[in-house]
Amino acid sequence: MMRKLMMAAAMLATTALTAHADDVKEVQMLHWWTSGGEAAALNVLKQDLATEGYTWKDVPVAGGGGDAAMTALKAMVAAGNPPTASQMLGYTVLDYAEAGKMGDLTETAVAEGWDKAVPAALQKFAVYDGKWVAAPVNVHSVNWLWINKAVMDKIGGTEPKTFDDFIALLDKAKAAGVTPLALGGQNWQEATMFDSVVLSTGGPEFYKKAFNDLDEDALKSDTMKKSFDNLAKLKTYVDPNFSGRDWNLATAMVINGDALVQVMGDWAKGEFVAAKKVPGTDFLCYRFPGTDGSVIYNSDMFGMFDVPDDRKAAQIALAKATLSKSFQSAFNVVKGSVPARTDVPDTDFDACGKKGIADLKAANEGGTLFGSFAQGYGAPPAVANAYKDVVSKFVHGQITSSDQAVDELVKAIDDAK
Ligand code: BGC
């Protein structure tokens, strides 16, 4: 009986995984990868799928952080016309899964052994109710500094190990007449930087309590006030034209030596790579001062929608390609992120990538791997948006003190929950 059941299951799996002549040989993907580095990384995927005979229907929605893309996705899904897959972050995947909109990749996941290779921190968001609903493509990390090496040499700077060191370094750049801090004044960029400031100011346990557990005492603590004080200090090193600037233009300021440093997720490295810059020679990657040993992560997931049967083979091909070891290496080398599997060799990665892989492993094993609040891995989208809004109002002077910022943060999170 058992044997018969197993054979039947195997046959079913084969049927589902086999392509049919009338299958749609097209992958339609919604994403916000429109910068130079991002487009180069996406090309790796397009080419992989092309070799398997799939065409690519691109649905790009510009806007770092993905807010505009998520609005477009909502409209497509509401119209009953979901893409084959969409780039998505953490809790957004779970929201769509809960609403019953996602497909089921479990057969493919089992056949390919994803559960053994993908870290639990990602499975928490890619698996809903026991079913794989998304394919994680990478792990990004936000607590990084990206520094122009020539500018650093010129001002005689060294790696800042504490927040005070960082301020001293920014002062040196200012004294030399270089813009110290390249920032794009958009809410998601400001909040992404603030994630690091909070980890640096309060330490790992505080970050987790405040930004993953949403513990009210932590959110309204003096440590959170101090974090806003530190953010206010950083703001004084930004050039006057920062409002609304795209993140990759801020990265370009560092690449071109117009600014010393950017605090940004490691997608910034994708821009350096696209500009043929080499770590250690042209640029430096350090952990945000005071956060070494911890990793604030996000992961781009390809959320897989419940598409009509004739589009399922393409979806499975996309999922398989995404989690293949060779793709995980080739894509992430270009993207600036690290593999979403723990069994991919770091051979082809540059020094920053190798550090990223080692840091992720250590943080995962040591309990210091935390979801980025700004990047959708701390709390559901409504709460994350409330957070981004408060941080941005503080940076742009609509909230005028750290006391007020903390009050508004607690209230906004409470309302959004
Ligand atoms: C994504 C990255 C992307 C960045 C800027 C982040 O939310 O995780 O893949 O490069 O936004 O667009």
TrEMBL record:
One Pfam family recorded for the sequence: SBP_bac_1
InterPro entries, A to Z: Bact_solute-bd_prot1, SBP
Keyword terms of this UniProt record: Periplasm, Signal, Sugar transport, Transport
Subcellular location: Periplasm
UniProt-recorded name of the protein: Probable sugar-binding periplasmic protein
Family, as annotated: Belongs to the bacterial solute-binding protein 1 family.
GO CC aspect terms: periplasmic space
Lineage: Bacteria, Pseudomonadati, Pseudomonadota, Alphaproteobacteria, Hyphomicrobiales
Function: Part of a binding-protein-dependent transport system for a sugar.
Primary localisation category: periplasm
Region forming the signal peptide: 1-21
